[in-house]
Each structure stands twice: as C-alpha cells, then as structure tokens.
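testing teh design pipeline on a random one, pls ignore if ur not involved
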C-alpha cells in the first residue's frame, strides 16, 4: 500500500529548507563512494554524518515541535526524495519526536521499512521507531507477531530487532520464538539479525542466551550461533 504525505505547513517549511541546505553541501565524489558502500541501493549527496547533522540543526532552528501529522508528512516526503541523506534526516527527526507518535504511526514505519530498504535505514527504524512504539503500546506486539511471519525480508528483520534496546524489559519468550521462526531463513540479513538480537540480549542475561543456543543449535545457522555467542 502506497502512503501519500498529508498536508502539513511545517513539512513544507522543513523540506524547503532541507533540500536547499543539503544540496548546497553535496560532494559528488563522496556521494559515489557512499553509494558503492551500500551496494548502489540509493544515490547519495555525499554529506558526512557530522556535517549533515549540523545542517539539520540549522534547518530546524526556531521551528516548532511537530504533531503526528507533521511527522508523517516529513517522513513520507523525505522518502520520496532519491538521495539517502534525506531518509537519514527523517529517521533522526522521528527518533527525536517518537514520544509524540501514537500506535497509529506503525503503518508508516512499515512503509518506510519496505521502501528502498537496506540495513542502514531498516535497523534504525526497527530499534528506535518500531521498538519505541511497541514499548509505549504493548498491544502492538500482535503486529510484531504478524511481521515475523512476513515474507518481506526487511519486515521480518524489523520484528527480530525491535526489542534490541529493551534490555531487562525484553520479552524473552517472544525473542526466542522469533529467532526459531526464522532460523531456517536462507538470507544473510535474517541470520545476522537473529545472532545480533541474541548477542545484545546476552548482555542482560547471558545464561538464558547460552541455554537457548545450546538447545536450538541444530536449528540455528552457524552465522546466527557465532554472532549470538560472540562475547560469551
């Protein structure tokens, strides 16, 4: 389903400032290197992250905080622009204002995850947006239960990673169930996500992860096992 940006005067102002500021700082040589690093998934302007964030602060200077409609409009309009830096801006902006977003924002997250997807955007959306929304509204775990079953690689990866920052609040049963559900997936990014999610939770409960891996080793890929036990 394609989502259309809603009307937003704040989004008009932000995008007007943003496209001027970022275009002025573009570096074609760096842009080519950045695009090659991410396997050509999207073009780049070639703005280093520290400079990009400084420009973003200038863009947002003196502007009011958004409501949810503004956030939807800004995110979707940034995703309509080809260069990856605009999507990075949107993610930074949404992370800053995630507390203003309701559970109704999750379909927007799904759209962002599944549009021009690669790990550089998906992982941030998974941890900070999907994870933040689910933490704020536990009823959304039902959506994650559906996402882990999804045939779309990056939707399933988002479900695997959404608890990555939960630490003691991690739903351990759900984490392990998700890992087993996708343990046979052939794709590197799913296998890596399984290992990463387990490795991160091992910082909170190493014994639980060791026991889980010991019992599921015949179902987990060698990559997932290696990543899960990396620091144990």
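output:
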């Amino acid at each position: 389903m394609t989502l259309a940006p809603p009307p937003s005067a704040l989004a008009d102002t932000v995008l007007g400032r943003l496209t001027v500021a970022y275009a002025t700082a573009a570096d074609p040589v760096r842009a080519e290197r950045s695009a090659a690093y991410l396997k050509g998934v999207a073009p780049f302007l070639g703005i280093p992250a520290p400079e990009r964030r400084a420009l973003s602060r200038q863009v947002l200077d003196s502007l009011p905080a958004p409501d949810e409609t503004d956030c939807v409009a800004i995110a979707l309009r940034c995703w309509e622009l080809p260069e990856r830096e605009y999507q990075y801006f949107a993610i930074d902006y949404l992370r800053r204002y995630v507390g203003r977003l309701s559970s109704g924002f999750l379909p927007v997250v799904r759209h962002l995850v599944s549009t021009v997807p690669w790990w550089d955007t998906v992982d941030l959306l998974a941890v900070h947006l999907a994870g933040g929304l689910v933490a704020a509204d536990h009823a959304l775990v039902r959506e994650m239960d559906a996402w882990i079953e999804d045939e779309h690689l990056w939707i399933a990866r988002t479900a695997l990673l959404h608890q990555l920052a939960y630490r003691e609040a991690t739903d351990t049963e759900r984490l392990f169930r998700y890992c087993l559900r996708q343990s046979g997936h052939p794709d590197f990014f799913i296998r890596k996500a399984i290992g990463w999610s387990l490795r991160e939770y091992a910082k909170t409960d190493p014994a639980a992860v060791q026991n889980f891996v010991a019992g599921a080793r015949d179902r987990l890929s060698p990559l997932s096992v290696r990543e899960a036990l990396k620091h144990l």
